[in-house]
Amino acid sequence: MTTMTPVGNFRKRLKRRVKWPLIAIVAALPDSVQTLLYLPRVRKFAQHVPVLKVVYTGCYRTHPLDKALGTETGGIEPPEAIYGDDKNAGSFPYMGSQPSTVRLALRQLGDLRDHAFVDIGCGKGRPMIVATEFPFREIIGYDLASRLVDIANRNARIVARRFPERVPMRAYAADALQADFPPGKLVVYLFNPFGIQTMTRLLDSLTAAYERGAIEALSIVYLNPLCKELFDASPILDCRFSASVPYAADEIGYDEGVTQTVHIWTSRPRA
Ligand SMILES: C[S@@+](CC[C@H](N)C(=O)[O-])C[C@H]1O[C@@H](n2cnc3c(N)ncnc32)[C@H](O)[C@@H]1O
User: Fold this and answer.
1) How close is the Cα of 8 to the center of ligand 1, in Å?
2) Which range has the worst mean pLDDT, 10-19, 29-38, 54-63, 217-226?
3) CDD domains this protein is in (predicted)?
């Protein structure tokens, strides 16, 4: 086992303190500058410049959804930028789902009129914004990071002003394991928010709520499903959809991928 020297430790802490403020400067570059950086001749050099190269994740460009609505759902927020030095906090970063993937997943579920939508690890609320396009009875999200929840609720106000006829969305600052699940029919949305330990406890608590009848019917939509086996082994769920879904053409270049893996499970009919 290697142990870090005090100098090594200091360097690591300094790098962490300096890295994210610098990335924040790059993230704040206007879209016109980011577009310029995408020109092949500029990119050839700029992609090798430390920090500046994060532009080429595409996540810091203004997403088409945000351009259309005036919301703010972009960026990558690494765990250390979200949670600081809190060792008990999450270990996965924030990154928004692509709206076309969310739409395709929700269309697999049929009539959603009496369902609630719950995004566990909702971040800035992009999937909730897309969920407002569907006739859910309630749309909520939970995230550990209160700063992201504030942004999600700012987005909620923008969407509510623009589409007063839609069901409003609301984000809450809470750990997934403390989340309250609305009773009745539920769609739980997960974009790879955490690892196996938290996911096991989350699935246990959903299963218990389903078995005592508090949840009438349960659908799980899971993107980039690192803990897929847990759901496959569940005695109350059947896999209903599993595919690698291409992004819509206008969403390509707004993160590093061009497809997303989507799995959907729904609860078995009760005996
Ligand atoms: C990949 S992002 C997904 C954001 C959003 N669901 C989307 O698809 O656009 C994962 C989010 O999970 C949140 N998260 C991580 N651990 C969590 C926990 N234990 N409880 C609630 N949220 C958590 C992170 O703060 C991050 O915003």
Assistant:
1) 31
2) 10-19
3) AdoMet_MTases
Query: Which ligand 1 atom minimizes the distance to the CA of 142?
Result: 21
Residue nearest to atom 10 of ligand 1 (CA): 193
The reply to whether 63 falls in a domain is no
Residues with CB under 6 Å of ligand 1 are 82, 90, 92, 94-97, 119, 121-123, 126-127, 142-145, 148, 175-176, 191-194, 198
Instruction: Please tell me the distance between residue 194's alpha carbon and the centre of ligand 1 in angstroms.
Output: 7
Segment 96-108 mean pLDDT: 98
Note whether residue 73 is domain-resident. Answer: no
Q: Please count the structural domains in the chain.
A: 2
State pLDDT tens for residues 238-266.
999 999 999 999 999 999 899 999 999 99
Range of the domain at 104: 99-267
The DSSP line for the chain is -----HHHHHHHHHHHHHHHHHHHHHHTS-HHHHHHHTSHHHHHHHTTSTTGGGGGGSTTSPPHHHHHH-----S-B-HHHHHTT-TTS--S-B-PPPHHHHHHHHHTT---TTEEEEEET-TT-HHHHHHTTTT-SEEEEEES-HHHHHHHHHHHHHHHHH-TTSPPEEEEE--GGGPPPPSEEEEEEEES-S-HHHHHHHHHHHHHHHHTTSEEEEEEEEES-TTHHHHHT-TTEEEEEEEEEEPPGGGTTSSS-SEEEEEEEEEPPP-
